[in-house]
Amino acid sequence: MSAQRAKKVAPRARAKKSGREHGSMDWVKKRPIPVVSILIADPERSSRAAATRVIQGLRGMRVIGEAVTGHEAVTATARLKPRVVLLDLQLSSEFGASLISVLRRRSSRTRVILLVGRASEDRIVEALSHGAVGCVTKKEIPFFLSKALEAVAAGEAWMSRKLVPKIVDRLADYTARAKKRK
Amino acid sequence: MSDRARTGSVVLIASPIAGIRAQWSQGLREKFPIYEAAERSVLERNLANLKPSILLLDLALPGLGGVDGVSGIQRLSPLTSIILMTSTPNDREGFSALKAGARGYCSTDMDPNLLRKAVSVVIKGEIWVARNVFAPLLEELTALTERRHKEFPPNLDTRLDRLTPREREIAQLIGGGASNKEIAGRLNITEATVKAHLTAIFRKLGLSDRLGLALFVTEYNRVTR
Is the CB of residue A133 less than 8 Å from the CB of residue A113? Predict the structure, then answer.
């Protein structure tokens, strides 16, 4: 039942075409499924292409823009208010404060997933601490980007398990310092 | 390798229920020496004597005192990694368990093979929790980082220190949205000089244009103020 329904709702064009034959298609127009809009902000053409390829194969997700510099990412995010920004980790530190917090302030609905080329775990955790909710290495884009997008669209987070100890350590460190001050 | 694991990593199992202890040791017995504790006093003694690598700790153990009790147990044997086991796992509690120092959070009736995997992963220094716990974990990380930045504004930009006082003045005016002409008028210099200063500023800050600079300056001011 639910599989059938998902099929019917899929792309708009198909719904329209078959709408005449099946009287029941009217509700499709009234209740469009929300599309997860995605902005890709990465200076590397190959990463943008890899991400686009993955997203094209996903139901209910769409690339609505691309950015290749940090400030393009900011202006595009402010204008398009995407649900998700795929952000190159290198770009994320282009501004004095992390670009991630800037993006989040310009568009509060936007969630940031980091695309990581080569970076230490510390740098990734640093970026996550500014409010990114996901992180996928560029090599793993074909395997994990879809999972990351689905998790983040559902309000969850996505990252490698290996980062968890670093994050826990950091939380403990903050808590210890807060105690010391008291 | 398995011999080394056998001699190296002792697993201590603490649950008041014999059936649960048997179930847990089932998947681990071949790989690790197992010790058991059915009550807190035995647990404490075993911790002191054995200094196990892993403690599988049933949240239902009498005298534990809930998730917060984990930190007390941890203090008894700081090098032991504690995996908290509960019959009713939930994300929030998993998150609290990690904060209390647990290195794993699992369901009591976990599949024996999966439990063995969890134990191996935790021995390697990783943490075993459901992916659902990642989101609250990152939320907390962001919240604490923001609070900390508010209390102690970080010296985010050492890059701005590279500018001369004049360049800094011009950067601030750009941040306020001024045009080259306005800046020239305000500082009583020619537009050509403003442009020369701008080129130097872009180079020093690694930026490519004035919009980038304007964003940079506003962001810098917001964070440092």
Answer: yes
